[in-house]
């Protein structure tokens, strides 16, 4: 009850990446509503049932790779999805790679793709066959995302179809494996405008898979760095590496980063992406980190002088698990009853509050998890003063919340969908989905859309009374969150992408 004030695993994490996503109406191509990350869409006329076997409400379906942990994003007549290269779209691109597909919104046909070979050597840097996990952010004719190698990239939404625009001109070399010859760049390849390597440029250490949803705000891009443990799961190789970086949108230049030195306290990795909101007249950036703490930073006001990297001002910090271990934290690796906590789902800002899930690491930590509601107006260490309410979840949680009509929806790995009062945390109902849920719920058109690891996709009515509208068993596990745009719901399983639309009965 809420209290007032008060493979395998490795592949899982990719999902944490895909732990959420909801494209707002039309071409609002962000992981959750911009900039709050609320998993709600304004789209209307969406289907309440579908069936790939009969074609019921299926606009189109296309094959992906064999492991897909990303979330589909639709914008400007195109649909983007990250996957692996087990089913190459182009025979020239062979081998284990992460792939960002750009598909035609009308029929799912290929427009272009960015193919990125795995990082060499240690598999824990870029897990084999895990593919591309980060969902893109689209603004105008620019696509921003983070590759499986930990590179923030700015891409031309038209790919190479209108030429190689530059200033980056090494696409062929970038697509080649170590020691190999540059690949031939063709019309269905991506056009990279600029690239920033978080490993060499920000000094971080990737772990298992890179996941980040870029937050675009004004001339800046806010990106969680993905700093994590090494292959022993007991050491942070880059303790001074930042958890949050700010890049120049036009050039990819590093402008600012946090100075909290969070690295030594990261349990596994920092896969939670930032959100933004205005509090008392100033813009704040909210970030959940792998140390179980939610931070609020003052948004960058202006670019620093040439050659300087500014340190972001920390406005407040809230420890979601103050009673968890704080010293020698990696000695609790694989302890399912006692361990520190981390944060995987994105924080969501709504009406002056931040909602964030935290708990033991799903792969290596305790099963306990909570949903926290935080007063975003406070300053300093607000662990003891900022909690509005806390709600205990069934077990591990990787997802972000959806808030609509003051009802809050959240999922967890304990097979439950929860509906709560967003103001008080009081539960209205729960629903057992029979299998663990990694994705976030999407709320759209009076419906709640949720996929599970057991291949089931559920559609429920949004509201205080539980009502199941339909469920369907798909071809493989569902890791990414459903998204909606232009009257269509997009659902990615591990192997297929489905575009759902209300169609006349046959």
Overview of the structural elements:
With 506 residues, the protein is mainly β. It contains 3 helices and 37 strands. Strands 1, 21, 22, 23, 24 and 26 form a 6-stranded antiparallel sheet that branches. Strands 2-31-32-33-34 form a 5-stranded mixed sheet, with no helix packed on it. It has a 5-stranded mixed sheet with strand order 12-13-14-15-19, with no helix packed on it. Residues 1-26 have low confidence and may be disordered.
Topology, element by element:
Elements: E1 3-4, H1 9-18, E2 40-41, E3 58-63, E4 73-75, E5 78-84, E6 97-104, E7 110-117, E8 137-139, E9 142-146, E10 151-156, H2 171-174, E11 192-197, H3 198-202, E12 215-217, E13 220-224, E14 244-248, E15 254-257, E16 275-279, E17 282-288, E18 293-298, E19 310-311, E20 314-319, E21 341-342, E22 348-350, E23 353-360, E24 369-375, E25 380-381, E26 387-392, E27 402-404, E28 407-411, E29 416-421, E30 427-432, E31 442-444, E32 447-451, E33 456-461, E34 468-473, E35 483-485, E36 488-492, E37 496-500
Parallel strand pairs: 2-31, 15-19, 20-25
Antiparallel strand pairs: 1-26, 3-37, 4-5, 5-6, 6-7, 8-9, 9-10, 10-11, 12-13, 13-14, 14-15, 16-17, 17-18, 18-20, 21-23, 22-23, 23-24, 24-26, 27-28, 28-29, 29-30, 31-32, 32-33, 33-34, 35-36, 36-37
